[in-house]
Design brief:
By secondary structure, the chain is an all-alpha fold. The protein is built from 3 helices and no strands. The longest helix has 26 residues. About 10% of the residues are buried.
């Protein structure tokens, strides 16, 4: 029954499930590690979670620089 399930079938399944999951996981870790305001951070986490592949692509293209620009300056003492 599963004798034909080999080779390119595995690559298709890998491309459909594993790669988007890895991109999502990396994006979530990077978003959580950013020291930015809570609002944009939560917004990015929601976007990446609700639309994993599209959200991760948007995060890697425009998100990292947008959160870096919004980071408030730290106040000494």
């Amino acid at each position: 029954m599963f004798s034909g399930l080999a080779g390119w079938h595995v690559l298709i399944l890998f491309g459909m499930f594993v790669i988007p999951f890895v991109l999502w996981l990396i994006a979530v870790i990077q978003i959580a590690a950013m020291r930015a305001a809570a609002g944009p951070t939560v917004g990015w986490l929601i976007l990446v979670t609700l639309a994993p592949l599209l959200g991760a692509i948007l995060w890697f293209t425009i998100g990292r620089s947008s959160l870096r620009q919004e980071t408030p300056p730290t106040q000494a003492g």
